[in-house]
């Protein structure tokens, strides 16, 4: 009986052993299948980790040189800043990292700050640029847009395209801007091409890929007037572009070759790359960052609180003196005058607001000990040559007008004298040149003429409101002020009355 029980137990154990072996075999077969066919699913479900896999290269990426992380240059390497490439796999790369545990993911909307996603795969970082597009339309002087991501600029068009995923149907913004800082001036902007900045999921394929920031602006408007060349374009361009230390591409609409040539030295100092003609180009240029418009503050001014790196007008004039290789950084003290005479530059306008007694003015100044230079730059003038003339002077004087813009070439502590024509133009004179001059580190003197010194007495009777109430004209449109007091008035300076102003300029040098 005992032997039978023993045999029964042995039989049961043998069956259980075979059952266990069968179960183990099934488990091993299942695990082998999972490991071979779906390793990510096994890791995620079994251990709670997430993997980050590279997005496979698209056919376009391989053809355009992204294979193995390299860029190809179809242009034969002529420009190290440009490489032929397509950015069409960006959306796929973004999708591949959504929801990853160790990524800082933010919904990509039009108002977000651009940020980098960092994932780790085998100790290697994979980065994807968050998209951002925003336009500031609140500034009273300029509308400016900043775009990050996949931005495409088709040449010979009026569009700047901000690429978004085809799945994003909620944020298809569009902005229309004039990339010239005279917002609200309809007369000026009538000549400026309006550009459309819009989000889209469909755009022409990139033919040229750039690795630097693009700045898009117009050189139309009031260009050709020296004051507006600086106030509207060169100062704002300095504020916008200087921070990039030359690694920036200028994309110019309303292209004017003569203007580009005139300020070639300034443009070459701000950008290492040839200026691109937006209107005359046939390529589709692709950038990772684009700024449409220029940062402009007050008239002929820089607000350090709003400027990148806290730039000031002193920084700008130092940049200009360096660009034109000007020798004098500052006016020397009185001891320097023992070996030479103080040098006075008279900006002599040829048409309106001209001096009618320039000979008397020169004779009086020379009698005070000045060496006098009489000159005025015009559109065709050699900027570099005239800049050297201005920089050699200690004092510069002239009637309110664009010619006074040459003060940007003066050395620090030089004196600028602005003669204000009749007509209540003191506020305008201070705004255009007075405040900027002081912000440039110059000594500023302002001299308003009397009725007797104005040629308006030859056009109007003395009891006319031009003389009795000139400020009444300022309630009208500016063109009324301009036509009345600026276009038809010349100045016969009272040299005896003005002598004290030139003495004050000499005292500035002594101090």
UniProtKB/TrEMBL annotation:
Membrane topology: Single-pass type II membrane protein
Subcellular location field: Golgi apparatus membrane
UniProt keyword Cytoplasm, yes or no: no
MF GO annotations: pentosyltransferase activity
Major location (coarse): Golgi
A Pfam family of this chain: Glyco_transf_61
Keywords tagged on the record: Glycoprotein, Glycosyltransferase, Transferase
Domain Glycosyltransferase 61 catalytic residues, every copy: 327-417
Gene Ontology CC: Golgi membrane
Biased composition (Polar residues): 71-88, 99-111
Pathway where it operates: Glycan metabolism
PANTHER family: ALPHA-1,3-ARABINOSYLTRANSFERASE XAT3 (PTHR20961:SF97), GLYCOSYLTRANSFERASE (PTHR20961)
Protein name per its UniProtKB record: Glycosyltransferase 61 catalytic domain-containing protein
């Amino acid at each position: 009986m005992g032997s039978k029980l023993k045999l029964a137990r042995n039989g049961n154990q043998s069956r259980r052993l075979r059952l266990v072996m069968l179960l183990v075999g099934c488990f091993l077969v299942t695990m082998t299948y999972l490991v071979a066919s779906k390793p990510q699913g096994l890791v995620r479900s079994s251990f709670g980790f997430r993997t980050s896999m590279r997005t496979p290269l698209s056919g376009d990426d391989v053809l355009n040189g992204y294979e193995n992380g390299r860029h190809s240059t179809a242009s034969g390497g002529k420009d190290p800043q440009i490489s032929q490439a397509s950015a069409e796999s960006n959306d796929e790369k973004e999708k591949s990292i959504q929801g990853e545990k160790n990524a800082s993911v933010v919904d990509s909307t039009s108002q977000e700050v651009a940020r980098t996603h960092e994932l780790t795969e085998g100790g290697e970082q994979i980065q994807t640029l968050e998209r951002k597009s925003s336009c500031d339309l609140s500034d009273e002087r300029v509308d400016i847009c900043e775009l990050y991501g996949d931005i495409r600029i088709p040449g010979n068009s009026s569009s700047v395209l901000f690429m978004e995923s085809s799945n994003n149907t909620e944020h298809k913004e569009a902005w229309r801007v004039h990339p010239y800082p005279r917002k609200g001036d309809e007369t000026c902007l009538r000549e400026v091409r309006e550009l459309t900045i819009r989000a889209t999921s469909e755009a022409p394929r990139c033919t040229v890929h750039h690795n630097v920031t693009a700045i898009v602006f117009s050189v139309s408007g009031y260009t050709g007037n020296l004051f507006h060349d600086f106030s509207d374009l060169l100062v704002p361009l300095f504020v916008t572009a200087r921070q990039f230390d030359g690694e920036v591409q200028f994309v110019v609409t309303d292209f004017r070759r003569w203007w580009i040539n005139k300020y070639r030295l300034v443009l070459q100092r701000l950008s290492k790359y040839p200026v691109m003609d937006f209107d005359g180009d046939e390529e589709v240029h692709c950038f990772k960052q684009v700024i449409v418009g220029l940062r402009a503050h007050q008239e002929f001014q820089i607000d350090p609180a709003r400027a990148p790196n806290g730039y000031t007008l002193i920084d700008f004039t130092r940049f200009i003196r360096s660009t034109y290789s000007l020798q004098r950084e500052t006016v020397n003290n009185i001891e320097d005058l023992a070996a030479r005479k103080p040098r006075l530059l008279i900006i002599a306008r040829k048409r309106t607001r001209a001096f009618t007694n320039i000979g008397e003015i020169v004779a009086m100044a020379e009698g005070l000990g000045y060496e006098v230079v009489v000159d005025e730059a015009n559109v065709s003038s050699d900027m570099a040559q005239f800049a050297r003339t201005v920089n050699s002077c200690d004092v510069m004087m002239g009637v309110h007008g664009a010619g006074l813009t040459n003060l940007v070439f003066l050395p620090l502590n030089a004196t600028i004298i602005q003669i204000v024509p009749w007509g209540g133009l003191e506020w305008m004179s201070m705004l255009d040149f007075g405040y900027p001059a002081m912000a440039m580190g110059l000594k500023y003197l302002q001299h308003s003429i009397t009725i007797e010194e104005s040629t308006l007495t030859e056009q109007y009777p003395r009891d006319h409101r031009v003389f009795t109430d000139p400020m009444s004209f300022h309630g009208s449109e500016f063109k009324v002020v301009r036509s009345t007091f600026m276009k038809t008035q010349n100045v016969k300076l009272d040299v005896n009355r003005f002598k004290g102003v030139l003495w004050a300029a000499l005292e500035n040098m002594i101090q």
